[in-house]
Structures are given as C-alpha cells and as structure tokens.
C-alpha cells in the first residue's frame, strides 16, 4: 500500500511537470512573449497609457509576439522592492521594466540590467536624448544600462494670493536663504493661520525630505553629500550644519508645519490637496511634477491653479553662483540581464520611447522632456504655464549619488533633520551624529572631511 | 525486513503525511531559509544580491551593536505585554464575565461591536485607527467637542496609540475564547462553593479561574504570537516613528530588509523575533502542562 501511495504521488508529480511544459511561455513555441513590468497607481496612469499604446503598435508590427504587461500597483518604495524581488530570480525577471534612476547603479552591480551600448549604436534616435539625462542610465563602468523616460527638477511653488495679501512683490524671486526667512516672517505676521514656507523634514516623508528640502539647502552652500572625484562621502561640512540650522529656524519660528505634521507620511497630500489650494500655505519646495496633481484628471484637481500658483528657483545660501539650486531624479526603461530575446526587448523599448509616445507621456505626467524633439514641441511647452521655468532649472540641477550605500545614507540625513526639528538634538549634535553614522555605514576610509 | 507490527505502526502515520509535508514546506522552510539568509550578506540589490557570501554571525554582531535593537526589543515586549497579555486578555475576560450577567440585548450589542473590529481586514483596521488617532482625527474632534486639550497622539504617544489600536482590534478573540470557556464551567461546582459560603469574588478567583486555566494559557499563547507578528497596524499608523519610538521588531526587520535592501540583516532581526516567539511559546506550553490543582 505504501508503494501504491508513492506511485500515485510520482504520477501526480509527473503530470504536473508535463502540464507545466505545455504552458504558453515555452520558449520552443513559435510565439514569443515579452514581459514588461512597470508601476501603476490611481494617480499615476500615464505610463500605463503609454505602454498600452506601445504594445498595440509593437504587436501589429511583429506578428507572433505577445507583449505581456505586468503593472505593479504600489508606491515608489514598494514598487522598487517588488521589482527587486522579481529580478532576483531569472524565472520571474521581466524582459523590460521601469527603473528608478537612483537604483540603476546598484542594480547594475547586482547584475540585473543588460548593457545596452551595442544596441544603442544602431538606434539613431538615441542622439536626440539630452546628454545630462543620458548620464542617468550610465553605471560606474561607463556603459549605459537604461534609457531615460523623463526627468524632473525641484523649485519653490508659491501661492500668489497668500504672498500678495502679505504685501510681497510678485513674481517672488528670493535671492538667498535670508530672503526666504524675511518673506516667511512677513506672511506669518500678516496671517498667523497660514503656513508661510514649508520644507519637508524627518523620516516620515522619506526621500521627499532629502530631494525636496535638505539637498536644496546643502547643495546651495557649496558643500555636497558625496565627492564624485574621490568617490568618498563628505562629513563634517559647515554646509551640512548650516542647512540643519535653517530647518531649525523654519520649524522653531513655526514658519513651516508643526513637527507632528511634518513626521506624518501623508503630509505631502495635505500640501497638494488642502493647504496650497485653500490658500493656507504660502510656499513649499516641490517637484516640477506638481501640476500633474492639479490639472484635469489629477489626484487633487484645482481649476485655476495656473493663475494662483507661481514658481521660483530655490536660491543658494547667500546668493552665490550659480544663484539657484535644484535636484533631479527621474525614471528609465531597462532590459533584464537574462532576457531570452534581447533584440526584441530593445526593439520594444524603442517603440515605447519613440517621439509620439514620449511626448504624450511627458505631458500627461508633467515630466521634463529628455528628448530634444519633444522638448521643442509646442504641445510640451504649452502643457502648463510652468514648463519653461522648471525645464530651465536643468542647467543647475544635481543628481543623487546613487550607490548601493545611498539608501542608508539618505536615512541618516532624514534622521538628522528629524532630530533637529523635534528639538532632541542641536544642528551641531545632529551633524556629528550623521558623521558617525556615515563612518559606520561606509567605513571611515570612504569618508572625507571638507 | 520489518515486522508487520512496525509496518502497521508506520502506516498509521500516512494520513498525516500531507499535513506534515505542508508544514515542512510552508512553515519550517521559510524559517530555515530566514535563518540561513541571516548568516549571509544577501541584499535586494548591489553586488551581493545574486551571489550572497557567507558572513557567519556578523549580522548578529552588528545587531548587538545597533542602538536601535535593544530599544526595538523593549518596545516589542511592551507592545506584547501591554496590548496582548494585559489589554486584550483582561478586557476580553472582563467582557466575557460581564456579558453572562448582562441582559441578552446588551450582551448582543456589545458582542457585535467588539467582534466588528476583529472582522475588519488588518489594513482596513489600521487605516481606521490612523484616522481615529491622527492630528485632526475623530479622537481629537471628540476631545475638542468636550472642551479638552487636543493631542498629537501618533507623535506624542505613538506606543500608546498603537497599543490601544491593537487592543481594540484583538479583544474580540479573547472574549470569544473566554465566553466559550465560561460556558463549560459546571454550575454545580459554583453552586457548591456558594453553599460553602464563598463570595462572588472568591468564587471567581478560586473556582472559575482554575477551571478555565487551560483556555487562559491557550488564549495567551495565541494572542502573544499574533501580537508579536503585528506589522501592518504599526506601519500604517506611525511607520515606526517618530525617531524610532514605535519601531517594534517586525517594523525594524521590514525596514532593514526592504527599505535598505539588506536582506541578511533584516532576516537576522526576524530570526531574533522567531526566538522570542519560541520562548513565549515554550513558557506557555510549560504552564499548560503543569498538573491542575
């Protein structure tokens, strides 16, 4: 009887194997399948639209090829996690996927991404991509592993009504940190119920804290996070302390939101959906994609935002050259290192990123164009009144040092800002804590005092 | 050749074989995998993602040197002791006792209300609790309406908020277990004690409690293990903040493994969590085994 049970079991096992072999993703069959993984959320459907269009176009041009779209419904962090988990195993790795620029380097280190240089040579449209944006897909070995979809910049977004009521001359063009504080104090004096000038801080807002707040300050002092030449992390800089001190002033004088609100991970929703539209906030630092929330079909539709909002570059500490500072991120399309159909996958990528598809994606998601032909298109330039201003910031923008250590360093920066705005540490102490944390993460040999 | 008796003995275990296999594959498998991963430098991305190398106990050494770790263990113990062992357990017992005395209508209304929180999926319950405790949430509106001071609950008292939320969500389970247990206590025994002159409180302490002792231990074991593993509730309400003030071990493990992509270190935290759960489990099993008085 035991024998029979074993026999039955082995029969079932054999049947499972045989059935699995019949499933449609058998590489030996005449039809080919490309798996495409990307992010889709309630407020971010532009990419889905673009890839649906590309799928139709591509399948029509390539008989027998099926493009299998695999949207992942998650926020940026969780999308990154799910994608990384899928990439770990060749059997689940997608052929083409949506990849954050700041993950490119560490994913190349992990061997997840296919080197594209030989394919890009044969693609003439590659020349129409902006050089700065091309760099975002380049890894430490100088090879290109990802093709940019679009980029973004950060600027000050202000409510014209609030500033006007406080007697600020418009358009507002702050030249230094002092200008920001002066204006914020003026707004506060005029109407204490308004949040004059918000900058994110603390771990609640995650990358938002550093990208839309701290780095604008830090890079405006002339200091930086990472020394690209030596490949070392900067510690002990005066700029780091000054930046923390500026945040402390904003929060201590109640020019920003309360620390409790700042540490709530949902605070940005209130900024976009409540405070700015209701004229309860003077200004904030946010990405060039801000209009995508307010335009028709956005998460926080706001008819008339074009007239009520204004945009200004974030100034350097004392107005030193180049006068303004901005940060850029952005997303790319990349190919899985172990794809069985690299030619086909690259061909799909070029279809997805052709001029027409790029244009509609860039406009719908309020991105900054990375293709020169798209950047010059009137449909792009007139998408909203702020496109020209935020696109001009590309000339002063900086990128994150996206090494594999970066997420921990970023968390250490967020912790420093949190300690300062909650008053548990002085800027000096918090900066010292950060220095110790960095030495702990990368090792003292990979830090440099500047 | 085995004797027929041994063969029959073995054959007896055949029906449980599928269950054992499932347990091995889906329970023991992940635990062993996690323990193995905690001895490597496995990462989500970066150089060691595909080919992790063996690092021995390095992750555990790092863990011991990490200032967040002792805090996190303490918070986990406080969370389990406060919201499960004391909160859910005592409140559930009290409700079960009172409901036996109450009118059927009152008992039904209370029972439904308490069970409603338990029926909600965890993520929904977590968002409801977030909305209740957040800055302009229901609790503050109630307090404001009564003319009392409003508080930033999730910021000023994050642990209190998540513990109350967990009590709210989990009490129904203890209540149901104790209601069933109390129904099993024979009325004659209680009556006999009454005849002997035992007062209400004495009857409860010396007759009822010893008789439902088995249920108490089982209930404690289940809610302790459930509460140890609570992640969604804490993550949605405070995400471990502010300044790690509500970072319980599951939150810490998640942050390390997925936010920082350090799977080796994250699984080391998870392994410690498994050990703590096993320690609690063993303690309860011992309690259960002791001869009843």
From TrEMBL, chain A:
Superkingdom field: Bacteria
Protein's UniProt keywords contain Signal: yes
InterPro entries recorded: Bact_solute-bd_prot1, SBP
Signal sequence range: 1-20
UniProt KW Signal keyword: yes
Stretches that traverse the bilayer: none
Short name of one Pfam family: SBP_bac_1
Name the record gives this protein: Sugar ABC transporter substrate-binding protein
Keywords: Signal
Automatic annotation (TrEMBL), chain B:
All copies of domain ABC transmembrane type-1, residue ranges: 74-286
TM regions (residue ranges): 12-35, 73-98, 105-133, 153-178, 220-243, 263-285
Membrane topology: Multi-pass membrane protein
Keyword Transport annotated: yes
A Pfam family this chain is assigned to: BPD_transp_1
Compartment annotation: Cell membrane
Chief localisation class: membrane
Swiss-Prot/TrEMBL keywords: Cell membrane, Membrane, Transmembrane, Transmembrane helix, Transport
Similarity field: Belongs to the binding-protein-dependent transport system permease family.
Protein name as catalogued: Amino acid ABC transporter permease
Biological classification of the source: Bacteria, Bacillati, Actinomycetota, Actinomycetes, Micrococcales
């Amino acid at each position: 009887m035991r024998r029979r049970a074993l026999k039955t079991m082995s029969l079932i096992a054999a049947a499972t194997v045989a059935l699995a072999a019949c499933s449609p993703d058998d590489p030996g069959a005449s039809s080919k399948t490309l798996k495409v993984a990307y992010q889709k959320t309630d407020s971010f459907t532009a990419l889905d639209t673009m890839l649906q269009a590309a799928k139709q176009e591509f399948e029509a041009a390539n008989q027998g090829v099926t493009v299998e779209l695999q949207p992942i419904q998650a926020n940026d962090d969780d999308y990154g996690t799910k994608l990384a988990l899928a990439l770990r195993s060749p059997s689940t790795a997608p052929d083409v996927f949506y990849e954050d620029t700041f993950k490119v380097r560490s994913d190349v280190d992990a061997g997840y991404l296919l080197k594209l240089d030989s394919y890009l040579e044969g693609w003439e449209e590659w020349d129409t991509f902006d050089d700065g944006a091309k760099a975002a897909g380049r890894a430490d070995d100088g090879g290109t592993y990802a093709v940019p979809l679009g980029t973004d910049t950060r600027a000050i977004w202000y409510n014209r009504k609030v500033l006007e009521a406080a007697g600020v001359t418009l358009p507002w063009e702050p030249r230094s940190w002092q200008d920001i504080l002066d204006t914020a104090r003026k707004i506060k004096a005029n109407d204490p119920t308004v949040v004059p000038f918000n900058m994110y801080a603390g771990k609640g807002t995650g990358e938002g804290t550093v990208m839309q707040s701290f780095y604008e300050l830090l890079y405006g002092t002339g200091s930086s996070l990472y020394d690209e030449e030596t490949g070392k992390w900067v510690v002990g800089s005066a700029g780091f302390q000054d930046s923390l001190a500026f945040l402390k002033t904003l929060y201590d004088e109640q020019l920003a939101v309360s620390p409790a609100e700042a540490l709530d991970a949902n605070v940005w929703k209130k900024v976009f959906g409540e405070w700015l539209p209701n004229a309860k906030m003077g200004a904030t630092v946010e990405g060039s994609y801000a209009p995508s929330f307010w335009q028709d079909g956005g998460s926080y539709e706001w008819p008339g935002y074009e007239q009520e909002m204004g945009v200004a570059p974030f100034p350097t500490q004392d107005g030193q050259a180049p006068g303004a500072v901005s940060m850029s991120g952005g997303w790319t399309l990349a190919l899985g290192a172990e794809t069985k159909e690299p030619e086909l996958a690259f061909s799909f990528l070029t279809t997805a990123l052709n001029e027409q598809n790029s244009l509609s994606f860039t406009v719908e998601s309020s991105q900054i164009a990375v293709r020169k032909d798209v950047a010059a298109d009137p449909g792009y330039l007139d998408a909203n009144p702020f496109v020209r201003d935020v696109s001009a910031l590309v000339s002063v923008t900086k990128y994150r040092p996206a090494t594999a250590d970066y997420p921990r360093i970023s968390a250490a920066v967020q912790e420093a800002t949190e300690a300062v705005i909650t008053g548990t540490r002085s800027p000096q102490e918090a900066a010292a804590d950060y220095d110790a944390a960095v030495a702990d993460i990368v090792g003292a040999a990979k830090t440099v005092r500047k | 050749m085995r004797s027929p008796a041994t063969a029959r003995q073995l054959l007896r275990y055949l029906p449980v074989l599928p269950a054992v296999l499932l347990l091995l594959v889906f329970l023991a498998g992940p635990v062993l995998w996690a323990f193995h991963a905690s001895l490597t430098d496995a990462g989500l991305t970066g150089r060691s993602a595909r080919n992790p190398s063996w690092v021995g106990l390095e992750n555990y050494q790092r863990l011991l040197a990490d200032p967040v770790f002792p805090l996190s263990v303490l918070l986990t113990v406080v969370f389990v002791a406060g919201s499960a062992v004391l909160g859910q357990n005592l409140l559930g017992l009290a409700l079960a006792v009172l409901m036996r005395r109450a009118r059927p209508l009152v008992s039904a209304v209370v029972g439904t209300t308490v069970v409603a929180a338990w029926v909600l999926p965890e993520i929904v319950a977590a968002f409801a609790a977030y909305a209740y405790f957040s800055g302009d949430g229901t609790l503050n509106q109630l307090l404001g309406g009564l003319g009392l001071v409003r508080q930033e609950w999730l910021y000023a008292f994050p642990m209190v908020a998540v513990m109350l939320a967990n009590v709210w969500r989990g009490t129904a389970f203890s209540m149901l277990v104790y209601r069933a247990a109390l129904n099993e206590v024979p009325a004659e025994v209680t009556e006999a004690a009454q005849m002997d002159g035992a007062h209400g409180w004495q009857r409860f302490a010396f007759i009822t409690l010893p008789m439902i002792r088995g249920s108490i231990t089982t209930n404690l074991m289940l809610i302790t293990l459930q509460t140890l593993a609570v992640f969604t509730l804490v993550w949605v309400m405070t995400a471990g903040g502010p300044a790690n003030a509500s970072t319980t071990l599951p939150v810490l493990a998640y942050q390390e493994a997925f936010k920082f992509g350090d799977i080796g270190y994250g699984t080391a935290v998870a392994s410690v969590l498994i050990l703590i759960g096993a320690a609690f489990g063993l303690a309860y099993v011992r309690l259960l085994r002791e001869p009843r008085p």
